[in-house]
Amino acid sequence: MTRRTTIHDVAAEAGVSVATVSKAVNGRYGVAEDTVSRVLAAVEKLGYESSLVASSMRSRRTGVIGVLVPDFEPFSAEVLKGVGAALNGSSYDVVAYAGVRHHASTGWERRSLQRLSGTLIDAAIMVTPTVLTPSIDIPVVAVDPHTGDGDFPTVASDSFGGALQATRYLLDLGHRRIGFLAGRPDLRSAQLREAGYRQALADAGIPFDPALVAEGRYDADAAAEAARTLLSSAPPTAVFAANDLSALAVLDVAASLGLDVPGDLSIVGFDDIPEASRRTPAMTTVRQPMHRLGVVAAQFATAMLNGQPPEQPRVILPTKLIPRATTAPPRA
Q1: Which residues are registered as beta bridge partners of 141?
Q2: For residues 311 and 109, which has the higher predicted lDDT (pLDDT)?
């Protein structure tokens, strides 16, 4: 097999350092025009033109949009599918990147963007970023950012409205002791879901009871432990969980405790991931348009690449309650 030409080969042929080739690739200052010309000539001579790096040398574009996620889990996977669907048939490819070594830390997107921007991607779609202030010169779109509004165009679901609808649905069924399995306290969408839960109780004249709230942190193990706490003594007749993974954990814990769902306990989740409808009983949940989030984010990114910033830089997409088999009126 013919060995693939590398950046080191380009540097040797042009008589420059690898660092100089990198600067030329990224269009940075400090590289003379004749040096750039030598690098491009080396690219052509060595047959390096098929690579993304060589493409960016010539046109400053790679034709790739990056989707940056802290981890590959159901929400980010569905958003990624939406991005792919929106870009299908376009001139752009999609690359998905997860900084798995750093996904639990604040600022993971800075490290990811530093690795990808300039030579590998033309624009970035960041899913649940922890910060919205990375200094890069490519278009960036944020999906469901931790802190809410920032400097970039943003698309998110109506977390407050969805939680309000879910809790009101349980109230309309006749439940009065409704537990809440909260998400991560640092995530804006999780805060809004708790606010929607509280507002629905207040509207119904039911005092907020902190004993009926536990923190699942959007993590299956933490959610299972929190569910055991909620259901161990004076359990509620219903639980609204801030995401489906947590709701599924409640369903498993209820089964282990011998509780019938929905006879002894009604459960509502949030997201409508594929597993929610596949479980037995099928999960009542609030559907957020995860696929649509990816579509809108991709539309934002391509518009910005064409020099057309979105007229509406922040979009909130509606959610919808999907009643299934895990909810029923409480037993008398």
Answers
A1: 125
A2: 311
